[in-house]
Amino acid sequence: MADAPLSAEAQLARERTQPLSVEYDIESPSGHVPVDSLAIPPPAAVRAYSTDTLVTGIHDQQVGNNALPTTPPTAISLADLEKNIAGDYELVTWLPDDPENPHNWSSLYRWYITIVVAGMVVCVAFGSSVITGDLSGIANEFDVSLEVTCLTTALMVCGFALGPLVFSPLSEMYGRRPMYFASFFLYTVFNIPCALAPNIGALLACRFICGLFASAPLTLAGGSISDIWPIAVRGKAIAYFAAAPYAGPVLGPLVGGWVGLKCGWRWVLWVNMIFAGVMWVLGSLLPETYAPVILGRRAKKMREETGSDKYVTEHELGAKSFKEALKETMVRPFVMLFVEPVLLFMSVYIAMIYAMLYAFFFAYPVVFGETHGFNDGLIGVTFVGILIGAVFAVITTPYLERIYLRTAAKRPGGVATPEDRLPGMIFACPFVPVSLFIFGWTAYPHVSWVGPAIAGIPFGYGMVLIYYAANNYIIDSFSKYVASALAAKTVVRSGGGVGLAMATFPLYHNLGNQWASSLLGFIAIGMCAVPLIFYKWGAAIRARSKAAN
Predict the structure, then answer these.
(1) Which of 331, 336, 413, 519 would you call most buried, defined as having the most Cβ atoms within 10 angstroms of its Cβ?
(2) Interatomic CA distance for residues 158 and 191, integer angstroms
(3) Domain range spanning residue 483?
(4) Same domain flag for 29 and 112
């Protein structure tokens, strides 16, 4: 049967729903997905418009003879929905200026949320490296080698890789806020057995568990920012947020070095617990920002008040069970990693940058401690160079964003291509090998310590800009499967951090400061070809992909 003609009132209500598909996007745990990519059909007709909520009804369309279920289904495909509609079925969506829509919250409140979630990322990244401030104290107390103490950082980073595989599907079902609350509470608590560890085994096990629970903010923070900022103004918030995963690790040895020097390694972990506890309190005060969950609560309230089960949301129609979501989260990222060259090489590049940052946590003690005789506190101060570079990068990213928007405006229809993200990456990538060569070839006892310390500035600058551009390129290239793409990137990135962190001491002791740094520098030079290749041929490669845009 053809759709019934729309009344003037219904037509007006439908027009008021149009901003939904343009401005609002359904958020996944690690990125955003446009509404028009969802397997949910638009309303056949708009039935009712309420002052409390926007309700769109699907009715007057019958393709089959089966009645709609009285209880909202957990998963309905497009084909199923087309076959089973026979009666009224009403979708709960946003009002145009809905005060509960996170995009409509005040700018000040949204910046507060942005700062808190970025602070949580800084906190967990800080926790991964703060222990390097007194590795020698751990080695002496437990009578183990420095190579074994490196596991205190490596195992926590390993937890960063595994945790998102669980927190991603859980956040889709229950929202961001419960994940922040529960995971950060457990992360804070497990710092206690770390600080009280009677042996190296207990310390390593608890550090790994800390990494598992600390991974939730790393997984969800970017999604929270996308929840509250519309696409048109999101770039600035993302630009400032990009430095958080890298500023945190740099602050770790700066604080941990002095605390370890004055109070010992156990107090390093107590300080980390205090920092985590403060951020847990702040995170607990955050509102829920995940739109499908907010709308789901609204629909549930309407069902309770009316006694009718016909009020549902788009997310409820397409929802997966936890088992299905977990399977998809654990399988699809690895499949994409092996069949998508864009995802593979961009993930490897990000992993290389991440690994080199963590390598510095063990290379700096060799260069500044063994070569120049610095104590742990002064070694921590030398990381300020990387932090300065990261700050310069944060200042630069808004300019790169404006260049990107101008490029997009010149494209047909004003729509940018994913490759338009890459000029910023091409500009930034030479800074990394340059910093490594400066670091290595000024690391002589007779050369001032200022040389290797200054080398951190170009590294921090290039590191943040590369991550910002590469991460956006992955999101823009795989918007349909962005959660899986970013999960794959996270696993590869964390794996790189673990591997090179464990190899740094042997590398510098066997090759020497100069050639160990040069080896990393040559690898960084080779990786500079990645953005150049994708800038020229990326569109053709994506055209042959089943998952890429």
Answers:
(1) 336
(2) 16
(3) 321-549
(4) no
